[in-house]
Amino acid sequence: MIRRLVILSIAALWLPLAAAAGPDAAPPPGPQELMQQTAQRMLTALEADREGYRRDPKRVSALVDEILLPHFDSEYSAQLVLGKYWRTASPEQRRRFIDAFYHSLLNKYGAALAGFTSDRMTILPFRGDLSSGRATVKTEVTTDDGKRVPVNYSMRSTPSGWKAWDVTIEGISYVKNFRTDIGAEIDQRGLDAVIARLESEAGA
């Protein structure tokens, strides 16, 4: 359930920043505004052809790549998931892991996005100090059985705007959860074997 909710929850996060540079340009959205705007953009795209997205998961993947991936801090998240193994990984291993990890998750759970509707998520009032460069946006996601699940998004300010790097569902961190699982697998099989498995799951 936790991993299935990860992709469904991440669906409401990222919006490409359209503001142009210049004195009259609007400031980039804060973390909560980013959440609200992106949820609407995702919903608009899905509602345009929901049945088509249900029938063709590859179209969902393309939609996620277009709307979500550019504003998910995939490198930072992957670095935290690998933990100590990031330091000894080669640049090529790092690149492959970042790509394979993201796409393996999408391949497994991306179909859940086709069922994402506006009544599934409630964005709670934001409380925090944005000057720190870190923020947590709290939401509640309604599951298929009607249960309301707390979902918190960890975000950080980057030169290209706010980006998400972790999702915590019912107190369980996406980064910590996968770091434990993948770390144990690397200890047993080695990093190259883990990357190869993820690439296989991603359809690479």
Structural features, described:
This protein has 204 residues and is of the alpha+beta class. It has a single domain (2-15, 29-202), classed as Tgt2/MlaC (Nuclear Transport Factor 2, Chain: A), CATH 3.10.450.710. It contains nine helices and five strands; from the N terminus they run H-H-H-H-H-H-H-E-E-E-E-E-H-H. It has helices spanning 2-10, 31-48, 50-55, 57-67, 74-82, 84-88, 91-109, 174-189, 191-202, and strands at residues 121-123, 134-142, 148-158, 161-169, 172-173. It has a five-stranded antiparallel β-sheet with strand order 1-2-3-4-5. It is globular, with a radius of gyration of 17 Å. Residues 11-23 have low confidence and may be disordered.
SSE order and pairing:
Layout (H helix, E strand, L loop, with lengths): L1 H9 L20 H18 L1 H6 L1 H11 L6 H9 L1 H5 L2 H19 L11 E3 L10 E9 L5 E11 L2 E9 L2 E2 H16 L1 H12 L2
Antiparallel strand pairs: 1-2, 2-3, 3-4, 4-5
Helix pairs in contact: 1-7, 5-7, 5-8, 7-9, 8-9
Q: Which ranges are low-confidence, i.e. pLDDT below 50, for 5 or more consecutive residues?
A: 11-23
Strand content: 15-25%
Mean pLDDT: 81
User: Whole-Å distance between the termini?
Assistant: 25 Å
In brief, what are we looking at here?
The protein has 204 residues and is of the alpha+beta class.
Question: Which features does this protein show?
Answer:
204 residues, Nuclear Transport Factor 2, Chain: A, globular, 17% strand, 5-stranded antiparallel beta sheet
